[in-house]
Amino acid sequence: MSSKTASGVSHAPDVGQQRVVILGATGMVGGYALRYALDHPAVGTVTAIGRKKLGISHPKLQEVLHQDFADCSALAGALSDKDAAVFCLGVYTGAVSDAELRRITVDCTIEFARVLLSRSPAASFSFLSGNGADPTGRSRIPFARYKGEAENALLAAEFLHVYIFRPAYIYPVEPRKEPNFNYRLLRAIYPVFRILFPNQVIRADDLARAMVDVAVWRTGERGGLVFENRDIRALVKSLHPHAEDSPGEDGSQKTPRSRNLKSGTE
User: Which of 39, 99, 124, 146 could bridge across to 105 with cysteines, CB 3.0–4.6 Å?
Assistant: First the structure.
């Protein structure tokens, strides 16, 4: 499958009640994707697969616990008859060894895609990659090489629709403990940074909405689409032209939470 850089896309709303699976729902972007999918009018069920329980309840939600994503054979039943997958599993560079970084970034992605494709061959696939991902494998940065390798594998698979998202700095929106100094610095200077370099930032909730929407609406023609940070921002604007540009943009407001989501942590 060849890939195309997204420049202009459209969506078809008549898709019925979609069966969506989300991987990485305990993470920042995956958590927003889960909230949004649960409230999405075109989504009938959401299967969240992870290593630990989410601690929430929702009539659309189905939870599946799984520990080793390097072997997803046991997920064959959970991945059957799905319409869309949103893959947000990942780890911060420096948090694990190089071998573990590659295992999580490449091996787990390929294994999950293998089982999903065998059980739901018509499913669309949204993949959280990253800015600078290098499909050529020549980058000296492990994260870039491994994300590029994972992208290549997904684009070479036989999915009807693959959406590759390459965000730059992902703004957390809600307060959290930053993983390292660089993220603490970026959060501190975000109000200025987003004005000077708007195409180098994206809100976590906006990114999540875009990943869910394109997978549900089957955005674009059959094949692979690559969304750079500029494309993601344009996509969010086109799909949500009246969305409130609140937040967390200046830290003064919080993004509204899912109305039907019940969580003991909120």
Answer: 146
**What's the pLDDT tens digit per position in 186-231?**
667 667 767 877 888 999 999 999 999 999 998 777 889 999 999 9
Taking alpha carbons only, the member of 77, 72, 82 closest to residue 20 is 82
Q: Which residue has the tokens 């889960």?
A: 34
In the chain, where the domains are located: 14-254
pTM over 0.90: no
Query: By three-state DSSP, how is residue 50 classified?
Result: strand
CATH class as words, domain 14-254: alpha beta
Q: Which helix (H) or strand (E) holds 213?
A: helix 204-217
Tokens of 54: 């989410």
Q: Three-state DSSP class for 230?
A: helix
Helix (H, G, I), strand (E, B), or coil: what is residue 249?
Answer: helix
